[in-house]
């Protein structure tokens, strides 16, 4: 949020506005103490990928405070609207400030359950996605400091994935990485899932070069990509590691896979 | 409206004169407790096959002053939960009274017995802490909750002033997170799977060793401490333990501080 | 009642010319029809007992408790209109908890009795309310130990300024038993009884000689007696089935450690058995006498 408040790099010589002063904190009147900061970052990373008839959400299980590892097993993935009858087909992943993530999870879970009790049918992922955006935006001026990814199956049975910013802006995507190692994982996903920068060899020169056509990947391939993404992120990012939790949503239910990651 | 979102909702300088940024900057969020006053240091906790061992020293510091030396930072909740508090002592007392009132209300339903286990209390406390941080009026504590979960299995989890929670076979708050946690983790090479191989004696011994390390290295610590063993059968709480077999021989070797400058 | 129908009984808080408040008297009538409740105070603690009339065979035995915990060290049993009792108990709990919030310690039993009395009395003052249709018996134990404040973390200096005197002998704490009536009147008692069987119960309580400084009744004896008295008091309404419910509060070194608790199932059954036996004994004697008479004939 701080970056929004004092965004640098704005043209200070423009007439009419005094942005240049905005990022330079001026002396306040009266004594100022070190204030309470209600946020922290608990590290870790999450990602989601969809296929023709499935969606996979994944997250490492490490929780950190600065250079400390709080625990090696703190899941970031949650089944939403799960009554214990394994009827749930929606998964939420949250990464960022864990306490906010937990609070967000509990609220969405309660809402999705209430929807089922009141309407006698489970909430669609599309409706749930919109509702999640509303919850986030309701706290626009004291946001849940999390990057959320919501996964499930849409009305046609296709994998559905929605990604959010902390204040509720969202879109449906094929794949998305979030959290500490998002910048490491996302380009890998762009290349391997959406075939960005992949061209058909000798299909032309310059702009004539034909991009490799996007195809929907089989589940096993995606699981492989997810594992590779996290083992690599574990190597390059200190806040990622310990364990990888994957939740795979298909029409038959949610399958959970846990794989150890390096603990260093 | 223009393409500078930062300008939206602000008066234009060319119309109203230069914008008074100090007005904008100085309006930092109003907070209540800005910092803790009388504080307790680390709390340690280790699971073992039948329960949990938890310990904290008996010191309450006022800055660098060792202000109170008989402070009981392990608080019990019937029938078998112990909560170890680090951080602000007055906030700890507030939470202790909150738990007492909760216990009294539980006993209104006397025939149904105690139903709140450590897991329930941890959830409750973390929600209290999260609510208070969201009100910008935090309870300045880090706490460990030790006891049993719904299946009577060992339960150990932490909660802090931000409402952050996590659980692990070994936990340590404050200085202990740096000094004790790595030592305690040696007990649990396979994390949760190792708990069944740890006996009460092993857990107690590890905790005692860590309390000693903390006394050697944490300047805000004391050699008098409380230790509790929580099992299905109840709580075994000792509040006036003394650190045994201290060895300060290593102190000679320390260079660069105090009198031994080189 | 002689003055009924004169119009002075139609509104609460209105006096009749001869100085009576009829609504309160009617409330007492409601109590006199309720199940019997008693309390026994001894040096070693307090016992509360009540006769719970079983209004339906479909009610679960042992459920729907009638004696309530108000704070750790205090319990209340009521006779009369049950919902009125519930409301009064809820108020007593609020009083006990607000005392704790203010003074960071348990409310003394006499203070709780006073708060409850004051609350009940207020319901005799306004035409918009009716008096409580209950008489409550409050039992409690004020700790005999030197108590710190709730949440206290240490004990302060052991010597010197603020230190403790070695041989300080202070008499503090002890049992408390109070009965609060619909008028708001409350007295402290050695033994209290209310409800339908109160007359028989009071007669039995008086025999225990509780007021005497030499009374040798132990807490267990008190439990046994309480059970017996409830059974004796039930004799007049034998057609109705009932359950015996008992709670107790002991000294800090006693079985409940100063806390208000259910009498343990084992002891309750023992007391109940003994109570039944003593009544059967009475019957046997009568029967024997009858038989004897018959033989003489």
TrEMBL record, chain A:
InterPro entries according to UniProt: Ntn_hydrolases_N, Proteasome_sua/b, Proteasome_suB-type
Q: Name one GO cellular component term.
A: proteasome core complex, beta-subunit complex
This protein's source sits in the domain of life called Eukaryota
Return the Gene3D superfamilies for the record.
Glutamine Phosphoribosylpyrophosphate, subunit 1, domain 1
Q: What is its main location?
A: nucleus
Keyword terms of this UniProt record: Cytoplasm, Nucleus, Proteasome
**Region Disordered, annotated ranges:** 1-42
* Record localization: Nucleus
According to UniProt, the name of this protein is 20S proteasome subunit beta 6
Which source organism?
Capronia epimyces CBS 606.96
Q: What is the lineage of its organism?
A: Eukaryota, Fungi, Dikarya, Ascomycota, Pezizomycotina
TrEMBL record, chain B:
Looking up Pfam families in the UniProt record yields: Proteasome
What keywords does the record list, in alphabetical order? Answer: Cytoplasm, Nucleus, Proteasome
Coiled coil region boundaries: none
Q: Does the keyword RNA-binding apply?
A: no
Location(s), subcellular: Cytoplasm; Nucleus
May I ask which residue range the UniProt record assigns to the signal sequence?
Answer: none
For this protein, the record's InterPro entries field holds: Ntn_hydrolases_N (IPR029055), Proteasome_beta4 (IPR016295), Proteasome_bsu_CS (IPR016050), Proteasome_sua/b (IPR001353), Proteasome_suB-type (IPR023333)
GO CC annotations on file: nucleus; proteasome core complex, beta-subunit complex; proteasome storage granule
Q: Which GO terms describe its biological process?
A: proteasomal ubiquitin-independent protein catabolic process; proteasome assembly; proteasome-mediated ubiquitin-dependent protein catabolic process
| PROSITE patterns, sorted | PROTEASOME_BETA_1, PROTEASOME_BETA_2
In terms of superkingdom, the source organism counts as Eukaryota
So what family is this one in? Belongs to the peptidase T1B family.
> Which function does this protein serve?
Non-catalytic component of the proteasome.
**Name of the featured protein:** Proteasome subunit beta
The scientific name of the source species is Capronia epimyces CBS 606.96
UniProtKB/TrEMBL annotation, chain C:
Residue ranges with Basic and acidic residues bias: 270-280
Q: Which InterPro entries match?
A: Ntn_hydrolases_N, Proteasome_alpha, Proteasome_alpha-type, Proteasome_asu_N, Proteasome_sua/b
Region (Disordered), start-end ranges: 253-297
Per the record, what is one GO cellular component?
proteasome storage granule
Q: Keywords of this protein's UniProt record, alphabetized?
A: Cytoplasm, Nucleus, Proteasome
Q: Under the GO molecular function aspect, what terms does this record hold?
A: mRNA binding
Domain Proteasome alpha-type subunits, by residue range, is: 8-30
Stored Pfam families: Proteasome, Proteasome_A_N
Annotated compartments: Cytoplasm; Nucleus
Compositional bias (Acidic residues) at which positions? 281-297
Instruction: Enumerate the Gene Ontology biological process terms.
Output: proteasomal ubiquitin-independent protein catabolic process; proteasome-mediated ubiquitin-dependent protein catabolic process
**Gene3D superfamilies tied to this protein:** Glutamine Phosphoribosylpyrophosphate, subunit 1, domain 1
Principal location: cytoplasm
Q: In which family does this protein belong, per the annotation? A: Belongs to the peptidase T1A family.
PANTHER family recorded: PROTEASOME SUBUNIT ALPHA/BETA
Q: Subunit composition?
A: The 26S proteasome consists of a 20S proteasome core and two 19S regulatory subunits.
The name on file for this protein is: Proteasome subunit alpha type
């Amino acid at each position: 949020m701080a970056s929004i408040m004092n965004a640098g790099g704005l043209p200070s010589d423009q007439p009419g506005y005094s942005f240049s002063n905005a990022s330079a904190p001026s002396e306040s009147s009266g004594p100022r103490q070190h204030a309470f900061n209600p946020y922290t970052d608990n590290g870790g990373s999450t990602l989601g990928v969809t296929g023709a008839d499935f969606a996979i959400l994944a997250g490492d299980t490490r929780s950190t405070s600065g250079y400390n590892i709080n625990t090696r097993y703190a899941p970031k993935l949650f089944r939403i609207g799960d009554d214990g009858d394994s009827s749930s087909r929606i998964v939420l992943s949250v990464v960022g400030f864990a306490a906010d993530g937990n609070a967000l999870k509990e609220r969405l879970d309660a809402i999705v359950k209430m929807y089922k009790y009141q309407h006698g049918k489970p909430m669609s992922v599309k409706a749930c996605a919109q509702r999640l955006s509303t919850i986030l935006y309701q706290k626009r001026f004291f946001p849940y400091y999390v990057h959320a990814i919501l996964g499930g199956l849409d009305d046609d049975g296709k994998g559905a994935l929605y990604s959010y910013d902390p204040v509720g802006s969202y879109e449906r995507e094929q794949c998305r990485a979030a959290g500490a190692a998002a910048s490491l994982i996302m380009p890998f996903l762009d290349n391997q899932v959406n075939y960005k920068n992949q061209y058909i060899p000798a299909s032309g020169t310059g702009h004539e070069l034909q991009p490799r056509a996007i195809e929907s990947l089989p589940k096993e391939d995606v699981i492989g990509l997810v594992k590779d993404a996290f083992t690599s992120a574990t190597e390059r990012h200190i806040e990622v590691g310990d364990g990888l939790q994957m939740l795979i949503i298909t029409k038959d239910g949610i399958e959970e896979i846990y794989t150890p990651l390096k603990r260093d | 409206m223009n393409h500078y979102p930062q300008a939206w909702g602000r008066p234009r300088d060319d119309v109203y004169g230069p914008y008074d940024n100090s007005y904008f900057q100085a309006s930092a969020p109003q907070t209540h407790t800005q910092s803790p006053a009388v504080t307790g240091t680390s709390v340690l906790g280790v699971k073992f096959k039948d329960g949990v061992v938890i310990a904290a020293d008996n010191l309450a510091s006022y800055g660098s002053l060792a202000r109170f030396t008989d402070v009981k930072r392990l608080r019990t909740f019937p029938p078998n939960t112990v909560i170890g508090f680090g951080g602000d002592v007055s906030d700890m007392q507030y939470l202790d009274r909150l738990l007492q009132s909760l216990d009294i209300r539980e006993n209104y339903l006397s025939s149904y017995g105690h139903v709140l286990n450590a897991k329930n209390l941890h959830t409750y406390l973390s929600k209290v802490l999260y609510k208070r941080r969201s009100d910008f009026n935090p309870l300045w504590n880090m706490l460990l909750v030790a006891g049993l979960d719904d299946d009577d299995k060992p339960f150990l989890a932490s909660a802090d002033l931000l409402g952050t929670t996590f659980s692990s076979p070994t936990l340590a708050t404050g200085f202990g997170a740096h000094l004790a946690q790595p030592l305690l983790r040696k007990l649990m090479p396979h994390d949760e799977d190792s708990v069944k191989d740890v006996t009460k004696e092993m857990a107690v011994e590890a905790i005692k060793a860590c309390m000693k390390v903390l006394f050697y290295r944490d300047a805000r610590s004391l050699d008098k401490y409380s230790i509790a063993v929580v099992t299905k059968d109840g709580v075994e709480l000792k509040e006036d333990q003394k650190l045994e077999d201290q060895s300060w021989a290593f102190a000679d070797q320390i260079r660069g501080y105090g009198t031994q400058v080189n | 009642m002689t003055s009924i129908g004169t119009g002075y009984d139609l509104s609460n808080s209105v006096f009749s010319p001869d100085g009576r408040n009829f609504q309160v008297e009617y409330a007492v009538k409601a109590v006199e029809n309720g199940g019997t409740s008693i309390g026994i105070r001894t040096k070693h603690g307090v016992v509360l007992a009540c006769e719970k009339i079983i209004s339906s065979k479909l009610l679960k035995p042992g459920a729907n408790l009638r004696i309530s915990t108000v704070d750790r060290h205090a319990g209340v049993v009521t006779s009369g209109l049950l919902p009125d009792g519930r409301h009064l108990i809820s108020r007593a709990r609020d009083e006990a908890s607000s005392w704790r919030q203010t003074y960071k310690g348990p409310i003394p039993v006499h203070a709780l009795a006073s708060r409850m009395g004051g609350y009940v009395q207020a319901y005799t003052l306004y035409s918009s309310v009716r008096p409580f249709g209950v008489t409550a018996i409050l039992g409690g134990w004020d700790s005999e130990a030197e108590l710190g404040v709730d949440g206290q973390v240490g004990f302060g200096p052991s010597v010197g300024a603020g230190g403790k005197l070695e041989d300080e002998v202070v008499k503090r704490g002890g049992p408390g038993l109070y009965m609060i009536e619909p008028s708001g009147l409350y007295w402290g008692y050695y033994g209290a009884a209310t409800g339908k069987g109160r007359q028989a119960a009071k007669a039995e309580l008086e025999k225990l000689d509780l007021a005497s400084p030499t009374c040798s009744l132990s807490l267990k004896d008190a439990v046994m007696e309480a059970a017996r008295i409830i059974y004796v008091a039930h004799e007049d309404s034998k057609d109705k089935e009932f359950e015996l419910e008992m709670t107790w509060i002991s000294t800090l070194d006693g079985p409940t450690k100063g806390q208000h608790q259910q009498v343990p199932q084992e002891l309750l059954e023992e007391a109940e058995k003994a109570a039944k036996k003593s009544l059967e004994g009475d019957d046997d004697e009568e029967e024997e006498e009858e038989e004897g008479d018959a033989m003489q004939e």
